[in-house]
Amino acid sequence: QVQLVESGGGLVQPGGSLRLSCTASGRIFRVGAMGWYRQAPGDQRELVATISSGGAINLKDSVKGRFTISRDNAKNTVYLQMNSLKPEDTAVYYCNSYVQIAAGSFTFEPYWGRGTQVTVSS
User: Rounded distance, CA 48 to CA 62, Å?
Assistant: First the structure.
């Protein structure tokens, strides 16, 4: 199977920065789109940012100008640089990746990391 391992979460003050990273490993033939989602207590999981294999980026409106998503295809890694963090950014952040697991597989399936906690508080 495919594993996604996240790192970089933690506790920061409002206005601070964090950089999340996520690396996919395991049974991988090709990696497609990758991204970050988040879920705050009592809320549904929501999209934060995605990046296609070709580099096309989609960002949630509330994080535009503050967050940046990037990827390193050679490392099967996606990053989320978070600046000017606000208390409302507090959530568990989940890495997502679409993966083709074998040459004989004709679809890309979504995989998820376990999540990393981001807490923004004074």
Answer: 9
Parallel, antiparallel or unpaired: strands 67-72 and 77-82 = antiparallel
60-67: average pLDDT: 98
Give the Å distances, CA to CA, from 75 to 78, 79, 91.
9, 11, 26
Is residue 89 within 8 A of residue 81, CB to CB? The reply is no
pLDDT score for 105: 84
pLDDT at residue 11 above 90?
A: yes
Q: CA–CA separation, 89 vs 26, rounded Å?
A: 31
In whole angstroms, how far apart are CA 116 and each of 32, 37, 60, 93? Answer: 22, 11, 19, 5
SS3 for 71? strand
94, two tokens: 């989940």
Q: What are phi and psi of 74, to 5 degrees?
A: -65, -25
